[in-house]
């Protein structure tokens, strides 16, 4: 399993627009085989950083998702919303392998 963490730099004056974008992705992600852990929005500290964490069974399955999403109309709508609203300034993707407690 891999966990993808996307760190967003967002416009703090457009958090509602970013939340709309995030809700779109939370609805779409399972359709592509990903397991979302949620978006994490600013609360204390920096007001322009948000995170999205989600899992895929493997990096190969993540790559399959990346190819499929490029052809999806709802994904295009989410990207268009982000561009039109200007809620996302930039984003960065990192991958992690979880170390979980033993049973």
UniProtKB/TrEMBL annotation:
<protein>
    <recommendedName>
        <fullName>NIPSNAP domain-containing protein</fullName>
    </recommendedName>
</protein>
<feature type="domain" description="NIPSNAP">
    <location>
        <begin position="6"/>
        <end position="99"/>
    </location>
</feature>
<dbReference type="InterPro" id="IPR012577">
    <property type="entry name" value="NIPSNAP"/>
</dbReference>
<dbReference type="Pfam" id="PF07978">
    <property type="entry name" value="NIPSNAP"/>
</dbReference>
<dbReference type="InterPro" id="IPR011008">
    <property type="entry name" value="Dimeric_a/b-barrel"/>
</dbReference>
């Amino acid at each position: 399993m891999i966990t993808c963490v996307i760190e967003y730099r967002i416009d703090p004056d457009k958090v509602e627009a970013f939340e709309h974008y995030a809700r779109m992705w939370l609805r779409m992600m399972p359709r592509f085989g990903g397991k979302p852990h949620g978006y994490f929005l600013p609360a204390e500290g920096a007001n322009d950083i948000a995170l999205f964490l989600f899992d895929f069974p493997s990096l190969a399955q993540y790559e399959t998702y990346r190819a499929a999403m490029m052809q999806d109309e709802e994904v295009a709508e989410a990207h268009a919303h982000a561009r039109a609203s200007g809620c996302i300034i930039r984003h960065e993707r990192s991958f992690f392998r979880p170390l979980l407690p033993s049973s």
